[in-house]
Write a structure and sequence with these properties.
single chain; 122 residues; mainly beta; six-stranded mixed beta sheet; four-stranded antiparallel beta sheet; 10 strands; globular
Length: 122
Protein backbone atom coordinates (compact mmCIF):
# COMPACT_ATOMS: atom_id res chain seq x y z
CA UNK A 1 0.00 0.00 0.00
CA UNK A 2 1.36 3.37 -1.03
CA UNK A 3 1.95 5.70 1.92
CA UNK A 4 3.50 9.14 2.40
CA UNK A 5 4.44 10.59 5.78
CA UNK A 6 5.54 14.19 6.15
CA UNK A 7 7.57 15.48 9.06
CA UNK A 8 9.71 18.45 10.02
CA UNK A 9 7.12 21.16 10.40
CA UNK A 10 7.59 23.54 13.30
CA UNK A 11 7.24 27.09 14.59
CA UNK A 12 10.14 29.20 13.35
CA UNK A 13 11.01 32.87 13.32
CA UNK A 14 11.18 34.88 10.09
CA UNK A 15 14.51 34.31 8.42
CA UNK A 16 14.83 30.83 9.87
CA UNK A 17 15.14 27.48 8.13
CA UNK A 18 13.38 24.14 8.18
CA UNK A 19 13.79 20.89 6.32
CA UNK A 20 10.65 18.92 5.62
CA UNK A 21 10.77 15.21 4.91
CA UNK A 22 8.38 13.04 2.95
CA UNK A 23 8.99 9.37 3.66
CA UNK A 24 7.51 7.05 1.05
CA UNK A 25 6.58 3.42 1.50
CA UNK A 26 4.89 0.84 -0.68
CA UNK A 27 6.59 2.15 -3.81
CA UNK A 28 9.95 3.44 -4.97
CA UNK A 29 10.88 6.96 -5.98
CA UNK A 30 12.32 5.57 -9.21
CA UNK A 31 8.75 5.06 -10.41
CA UNK A 32 6.97 8.07 -8.95
CA UNK A 33 7.12 11.82 -9.01
CA UNK A 34 6.74 13.54 -5.65
CA UNK A 35 5.35 17.02 -5.30
CA UNK A 36 5.40 19.36 -2.35
CA UNK A 37 2.28 21.44 -1.85
CA UNK A 38 1.05 23.88 0.74
CA UNK A 39 -2.25 25.26 1.90
CA UNK A 40 -2.61 28.36 4.00
CA UNK A 41 -5.83 29.11 5.94
CA UNK A 42 -8.52 30.33 3.59
CA UNK A 43 -6.44 29.72 0.49
CA UNK A 44 -6.30 27.06 -2.15
CA UNK A 45 -3.66 24.38 -2.08
CA UNK A 46 -0.73 25.23 -4.34
CA UNK A 47 2.22 23.33 -5.67
CA UNK A 48 5.57 24.42 -4.29
CA UNK A 49 7.82 22.13 -6.30
CA UNK A 50 8.12 18.62 -7.65
CA UNK A 51 10.77 16.05 -8.39
CA UNK A 52 10.12 13.51 -11.10
CA UNK A 53 10.91 9.81 -11.04
CA UNK A 54 14.12 10.43 -13.01
CA UNK A 55 15.23 13.06 -10.51
CA UNK A 56 14.34 16.03 -12.68
CA UNK A 57 13.05 19.05 -10.80
CA UNK A 58 10.23 21.25 -11.94
CA UNK A 59 10.12 24.97 -11.44
CA UNK A 60 9.38 26.38 -8.04
CA UNK A 61 6.50 28.55 -6.97
CA UNK A 62 7.61 32.12 -7.73
CA UNK A 63 7.36 33.20 -4.12
CA UNK A 64 9.82 30.52 -2.94
CA UNK A 65 12.39 30.63 -5.73
CA UNK A 66 15.90 30.97 -4.39
CA UNK A 67 14.78 30.02 -0.88
CA UNK A 68 13.39 26.48 -1.17
CA UNK A 69 15.10 23.42 -2.60
CA UNK A 70 13.61 20.01 -3.31
CA UNK A 71 15.81 16.92 -3.21
CA UNK A 72 15.57 13.21 -2.61
CA UNK A 73 17.51 10.30 -1.13
CA UNK A 74 16.73 7.16 -3.09
CA UNK A 75 18.36 4.94 -0.46
CA UNK A 76 15.96 6.29 2.16
CA UNK A 77 13.00 6.58 -0.22
CA UNK A 78 12.55 10.10 1.08
CA UNK A 79 12.03 13.48 -0.53
CA UNK A 80 13.04 16.68 1.22
CA UNK A 81 12.10 20.32 1.03
CA UNK A 82 14.79 22.60 2.39
CA UNK A 83 13.27 25.95 3.27
CA UNK A 84 15.54 28.89 4.00
CA UNK A 85 14.89 32.54 4.80
CA UNK A 86 11.33 31.70 5.80
CA UNK A 87 8.71 34.41 5.69
CA UNK A 88 5.45 34.86 7.53
CA UNK A 89 3.61 34.19 4.27
CA UNK A 90 5.16 30.71 4.10
CA UNK A 91 2.93 29.69 7.00
CA UNK A 92 0.81 26.76 5.83
CA UNK A 93 0.23 23.06 6.08
CA UNK A 94 2.72 21.40 3.78
CA UNK A 95 1.82 18.17 2.00
CA UNK A 96 3.63 15.77 -0.26
CA UNK A 97 1.87 13.77 -2.91
CA UNK A 98 2.76 11.14 -5.48
CA UNK A 99 1.89 10.27 -9.03
CA UNK A 100 3.44 7.94 -11.56
CA UNK A 101 6.63 9.09 -13.29
CA UNK A 102 6.09 12.75 -14.12
CA UNK A 103 5.27 15.95 -12.31
CA UNK A 104 1.94 17.50 -13.18
CA UNK A 105 -0.78 19.83 -11.99
CA UNK A 106 -2.23 19.32 -8.55
CA UNK A 107 -5.39 17.56 -9.73
CA UNK A 108 -3.37 14.65 -11.09
CA UNK A 109 -1.80 13.59 -7.77
CA UNK A 110 -3.66 10.66 -6.30
CA UNK A 111 -1.85 9.80 -3.08
CA UNK A 112 -1.33 12.35 -0.34
CA UNK A 113 0.32 12.54 3.04
CA UNK A 114 -1.39 13.91 6.12
CA UNK A 115 0.52 17.20 6.10
CA UNK A 116 2.89 18.97 8.46
CA UNK A 117 2.32 22.43 9.90
CA UNK A 118 4.86 25.18 9.25
CA UNK A 119 4.33 28.39 11.17
CA UNK A 120 6.57 31.38 10.63
CA UNK A 121 6.09 33.99 13.31
CA UNK A 122 8.07 36.26 15.57
Amino acid sequence: QLQLVESGGDLVQPGGSLRLSCAASGFTLDDYAIGWFRQAPGKERERVSCIASNGGRTGYLDSVKGRFTISRDISKNTVYLQMNNLKVEDTAVYYCAARRLFCSNIEFYHDWGQGTQVTVSS
